Amino acid sequence: MIPELLLAFGLAAAPSPDPSAVLAAILSEVRAKRHFPGGVALVSRRGVPVASAAVGVRREGGADPVSIDDRFHLGSVTKPMNATMIATLVEEGKLGWESTLEQMFPDGPIHRELRAVTLAQLLSHRSGLAAFTSDAEMEEAPKLYGDARAQRAQFAQWLLARKPALTPGAQFAYSNAGIAIAAAAAERAADRPWEDLMRERVFKPLGMKSAGFGWPAYDDPKAPWGHQLDGTRLVPHDPRGAYQLNAVIQPAGNVSVSVKDLGLFLDDHARGIAGTPGLLKPATYARMHALEPEGSALGWGVRKRDGVTTSSHSGSAETFYAIVQVVHEDGLEIAVMLNSPDSVPATAIYRAIWERFRAGAPPKPAG
After folding, report:
1. Per CATH, the architecture of 17-80+198-358 is what?
2. Omega of the bond prior to 221 within 30 degrees of 0, cis?
């Protein structure tokens, strides 16, 4: 029946459900099944907001509710932002995707197997450098001194003089060290600390006012605390405690931001994938989100699954968990952030969002 006839018979059409209420219900349902203290999520389509929601509390055992404006720690979702900052330097000619380590670090000794490794290989995890995803690996490095930039320069000098863990370019091998070296190259090329480069070249131009570094509650006691898993128990992590990400690894995983401001970053890339100039030129977005050859994307994981192409990343520094994704074909953006390091509820929320807001099976996780 047409609406007029429905009204005539007293059969008014049922209102469509509020997308944000649907999203909040997804978060709450997953939280009831696989507990996490608090979380936020956002859905957009190429910059047009669809839904946003926040559930739970800022700290396990507390009553202070999570807000949609709260900052959460991104872990390795920092990597696409870092690559975007470096892309601005490439567009200015200060660096090139094919710049080699020998060109980017002309003053220090570089192992012969590393001399031809390129900036693109660093950002696509094909440098052959070791992972540096554990404290044990970092303990192999010599004592580093000075501010964060100085420590990253010292780390680069030490690591690049050593034989790589794997043959460069031969295979994908996830490496925080490769990202750290790329950041050190950016600092050298721009003569600015990485933190300043991120503020000046990504956060400020995109209007990401909440974006910063480190645990959200380090400087703001009202912000969400992260939590660590003790078996199945979630234990609040003191943001001012001994566990802090060291200077070397920060470019690979130490940004904190609100989900709204994270959405601004995803918006920029979703539009860029569609060919709209933004922070970068269309050709630069295309290079960063390249599907072929496999493993050539820069800062993102790009996969073809179930008939669609997705750019995504997940991350955790063992206190929070974050997932982001942009679908190339329709610009669907998904962001999920929890103050728990447990990947299970975060992945369940992501899958439920996909099924509800895209009406199709989500892509299978990349191997």
Report:
1. 3-Layer(aba) Sandwich (3.40)
2. no
Find, among 297, 274, 247, the residue nearest to 79 by Cα. 297
**Would you call 133 exposed, middle or buried from its count of C-beta atoms within 10 A (0-12, 13-18, 19+)?**
middle
- How do the pLDDT tens digits run along the chain, 367 residues long? 444 433 344 444 445 689 999 999 999 999 999 999 999 999 999 999 999 999 999 999 999 999 999 999 999 999 999 999 999 999 999 999 999 999 999 998 999 999 999 999 999 999 999 999 888 888 889 999 999 999 999 999 999 999 999 999 878 999 999 999 999 999 999 999 999 999 999 999 999 999 999 999 999 989 999 999 998 899 999 999 999 999 999 999 999 999 999 999 999 999 999 999 999 999 999 999 999 877 789 999 999 877 899 999 999 999 999 999 999 999 999 999 999 999 999 999 999 999 999 854 444 444 4
Query: What is the reported pTM?
Result: 0.92
Report which residue type is found at 357. F
Could you say which architecture CATH assigns to the domain 82-195? 3-Layer(aba) Sandwich (3.40)
